[in-house]
């Protein structure tokens, strides 16, 4: 055995002999009594836990920053995936300028018009013109000449399934498609509220009030400050400017136009699904 190891062994033996020679230490009777009482009552004094850091490991500030950054990235990713499809301009008939959010866009520039028509845009259709818009397989809208309205956003894929629109004046025809299932469209006018879960209908805003003609399904219609009432297919409800209402058969001319519109919406929905939901280019738009 080397000399340093022999010296260390001799020192350890001397320490052990010194410890063995110490007199026994008896427990403090006061401490023993207090401990026994604590066990009996379950009342132990609260002590702060002792935190022992692990050797060689320390969480730096970058690691703590990475947690909220990852959560924010996941939230943004979910928001992007939840967004519904964009509106497609399928037809722009007539001439003049369409005013979108205060910006006049000539009907002869359908590509510029298609880019501007997004959910939440305020649109004014010129006299003698008509706009046809489709939202993939969810719904289709036709805004006739002189109509001023706010275009609804597309319903989200998982949440945000209720979307809203506003019609100030004119006629807005709506036809929902199979992809709209589980969504809801709420349209308000100066005097009425219209709730659509699945239907083909026309919302006609006139000086006397709002007329809602329902071709199929059932639509809830009521004054802004009044009770809603289900309007079945083939019927209409008129909400006058004073808040009073009237239920009757739908207008014959509107029945014919809505029937043609429903067929158009079904055709466009199938074509859009076949094309993968891509936007139509300017050359595809009827002039």
Q: How would you describe this protein?
A:
Strands 1, 2, 3, 4, 5, 6, 7, 8, 9, 10, 11, 12, 13 and 14 form a 14-stranded mixed β-sheet that branches. With 287 residues, the protein is an alpha+beta fold. The chain has helices at 3-20, 29-41, 61-82, 110-116, 252-274, and strands at 88-93, 97-100, 103-106, 122-124, 130-135, 139-143, 148-150, 162-176, 184-188, 192-205, 209-223, 229-232, 235-240, 245-249. The protein has a domain at 86-274: Jelly Rolls, CATH 2.60.120.1440.
Q: Quick gist of this model?
A:
With 287 residues, this protein is α+β, with helices and mostly antiparallel strands. The protein contains five helices and 14 strands. A hairpin with a 3-residue loop joins strand 5 and strand 6 (139-143).
Annotation keywords:
287 residues; alpha+beta; Jelly Rolls; 14-stranded mixed beta sheet; 5 helices; 14 strands; elongated; disordered C terminus
CATH architecture of the domain at 86-274: Sandwich
Low-confidence stretches: 36-44, 75-79, 274-287
Rg estimate, integer Å:
37 Å
Instruction: Tell me how many strands there are.
Output: 14
CATH topology term of the domain at 86-274: Jelly Rolls
Summarize model confidence as the mean pLDDT.
Answer: 80
Biggest β-sheet strands, sense, barrel: 14 strands, mixed
Q: Helical residue percent?
A: 25-40%
Shape designation: elongated
Task: Tell me which oligomeric state these chains represent.
Answer: single chain
